Amino acid sequence: MTKKxxxxxxxxxxxxxxxSEKSAAIVAQHLDRDRYEVHKVHIYPGNWYxxxxxxxxxxxxxxxxxxxxxxxxxxxxxxxxIIHGTPGEDGKLAGYFDMLDIPYTTCDxxxxxxxxxxxxxxxxxxxxxxxxMARSMQLFSNLPDNVPMVLDQLRLPYFVKPNNxxxxxxxxxVKKEEELEEALxxxxxxxxxxxxxxxxxxxxxxxxxxxxxxxxTVLPATEIISSREFFDFEAKYIPGVSxxxxxxxxxxxxxxxxxxxxxxxxxxxxxxxxVRMDYFLEKDTGKFYFIEINTVPGxxxxxxxxxxxxxxxxxxxxxxxxxxxxxxR
Length: 329
What we know:
CATH architecture of the largest domain: 2-Layer Sandwich
Strand order of the largest sheet: 6-5-4-3-2-1-7
Number of domains: 3
Radius of gyration: 20 Å
Distance between the termini: 19 Å
Shape: globular
Number of strands: 18
Low-confidence stretches: 231-237
Strand content: 25-35%
Largest sheet: 7 strands, mixed
């Protein structure tokens, strides 16, 4: 059997590049080397290169996403994308690979760009049965009028977050009126659009969803118990700051309801590959509140998707094979 040549792309143009490199190291360990020839490709601003097993670096020709290695041109059959944030998660690379007709493991350009925008994603998902959204406002510039307008229209406490950011960078929880101005400043440092949401009190979960052969699979959810006010960057990436329980504590009816909602979200957004959706089950009512969706979720050994795949009794090797094979269907 001729092995398919897979470019495992990692890095990116944001602070999340470090997480991407860690995710890629785990993916590389678990890819089926009997089926695939794996090439690690690093993508950084002005510096795209393939790195071989010996640490030798070869520049990528952006005209066709090819590499000249030992006098021969290396082209790829498919892309395993593990770049969080831009340009891997926001649709830029998806559009580039579409133009070159190279398949990839993640969502298409349109879905990727829409899902990076929390406000637009919520607008598309409104109308799904049993799915609730926290009341929110989308702000497009940091104007003095924003503070009184938010206070007038939304009820404290709030989450203030960059609309297109990842890993909870620039996000704040606002409990008092006087904290709002500073929180907006912090969020606008990260993005030109900011989302202010009313806080939902409840238990927080995160759930993986993927599709193979036309069949959507919903992984067991992870319950997140953070010692922080919310699941921020430190809670996500510093061991011991949050407790993660997989499968999360839900009764059978809740599990079934969440599964149905998760599948509808995946299909309505026309997702591809593996995505991760964060949600709250509201205290007292048990209502399902959508938080956000990640279309290139982390794949480190302790990442939520990795935990959920193992909880389902599946190996990461089989999971990654499913994601890769889906590219050519």
